[in-house]
Amino acid sequence: GLFTTQGISSGSEIFLAYNRINTIGRFGYDFREALLATFVNDSQTPNSEFIVSDAGIMLRAKREIASGEEI
Description:
The chain has 71 residues and is an all-beta fold. It has no helices and four strands. 0% of the residues lie in helices and 35% in strands.
């Protein structure tokens, strides 16, 4: 799992999960996965969500996340 070492505010960007590397690919863009993305928990009540940004795909906090909590 992936655990926080400090609290994270709701709406904060946690990390860039996938870098956009070019605009050619099956879905219009090719992405490179960041290693941390493989450790994100698949909870029934997730505390984070993936969003598309200009840089790629970001992991963002859906709510306050306490220090020591699994993402």
